[in-house]
Design goal:
heterodimer; A: mainly beta; 5-stranded antiparallel beta sheet; globular; B: mainly beta; 7-stranded mixed beta sheet; 4-stranded antiparallel beta sheet; 50% strand
Amino acid sequence: GEDVEQSLFLSVREGDSSVINCTYTDSSSTYLYWYKQEPGAGLQLLTYIFSNMDMKQDQRLTVLLNKKDKHLSLRIADTQTGDSAIYFCAETLLTGGGNKLTFGTGTQLKVEL
Amino acid sequence: ETGVTQSPTHLIKTRGQQVTLRCSSQSGHNTVSWYQQALGQGPQFIFQYYREEENGRGNFPPRFSGLQFPNYSSELNVNALELDDSALYLCASRQGASENTEAFFGQGTRLTVV
């Protein structure tokens, strides 16, 4: 089955690291993604990881994947007020029937001064 | 700016009416997907169009239908609107239907059904 879960809310201080967690249930997932959504905006792709990788780092962002536990995390180093947004993890299966993204419920990150 | 534009940005409809939402995909992209995002939820996949044909569909009833045109722009049509159809509707365009190419999202259309 397909189900992606995230905690709803995270509050951090500016300059600290943020860690947003996600669990998924479909072990056939090929790629896992992190998207950012600011108020009134669409979705912005932050980063993604292929299912045979454990870690991916991209500037301030670090993605960790534990495929055994079906757990994905996004770490944002030196969190800034501009990072305040809702973060969605998503999984996808590459099939001949289209490339659909299954999203979690989103984690609202609030960065305080 | 992703190059994906949606129109209108907001609209209000009455229960039972029909609505058409439009999406202009990024240049060079031949695949468009539509998502429904209810308040406080993650986006839910409605369907995907590739080269003018539907090639994937989520758990939405037949009153949700779509079209893709030769220029790869797309429409989402919803008939017999229900109150629960109130949501942000997002379209995303990409190059290729099954490859892991990046999907670029538009700003969305906020539909309110009263």
